[in-house]
Amino acid sequence: MSRYTRMALILLTIGAILIFVGYTLGGSYLDLSQTPNWTGIGDTIESVIGFIRDHRRDEGSLRSFDQEYNVDPAGICDIKVNWLDGEITIKTEDVQSIMIREWGSVKNAEKDRLFYRKTGSNLIIDYSEREILNNIIDKNLEIVLPHKMSMENIRVNCMDAELDIEMPVLKTVKIECMSGEYVVKVDTEQLFFDSMSGKLEFFGELENFRGNTMDGDVVLHLRKMSGFSLKYSSMSGSLISEIPLLKSDEIFYCGDRKADYQLESMSGNITIVELP
Fold this sequence. Notes:
Blueprint: H1 3-24, H2 41-58, E1 63-71, E2 78-82, E3 85-93, E4 98-106, E5 115-119, E6 122-126, E7 137-146, E8 153-157, E9 160-177, E10 179-195, E11 199-204, E12 206-213, E13 218-222, E14 227-234, E15 239-241, E16 246-248, E17 251-255, E18 259-265, E19 270-274
Parallel strand pairs: 2-6, 2-8, 3-7, 3-9, 8-9, 9-10, 10-11, 10-12, 11-13, 12-18, 13-19, 14-18, 15-19
Antiparallel strand pairs: 1-4, 4-7, 5-6, 14-17, 16-17
């Protein structure tokens, strides 16, 4: 199954959910006498997620929540975050242990707290131990890593978040999401971005990039390098580059083409900026 097929199936699922929600709310979303207001894929997804978020906050009584956890960094070189929405910050500081903080509003502080576990070299952080759809939660996450820690890979799976990763060096960064804004500041060998309408903004040195979006934009702020090649496939998106590019067949390139970038998108744009 191709990535676009999977995305189409997800959109169909969202449509079915909206129909069900409209029915349960008295048919307000099923009034065919109303003139349809057609929007882009990104706007539609943002509206769906906004409705889910607001509906979650309106139900029940929410309480302020702020919790910190300390994790021994010994043996850990990979971090995987499974989150829903809200702010996610991952950075380094002069600390001795991995510091994890979550804060926001929850209905049950004991049952709605995050769940983390160490599996081999992996530290896995889950939004909640119990089923998310049964919860009323609105949380943010901050992960602070020791400067001297040998971190290699970071992977983030989420629905709609504001992600900020700021690290010196990583081997791999992988982001899978529906929508949101994602800022990555790091020198890395590999960057993977799979999204429906999320926006990615990268700052640093980048050897390999693979991106797949439907309506999401990508902005690469690159340090001066020897060169790169870019394969960009899009139905209606555009390529903007401050760095002069040549083109051979379907490949854009500059310099010795050492770095390899690829982006597939239906209507997402890609912008390349050279850092001073």
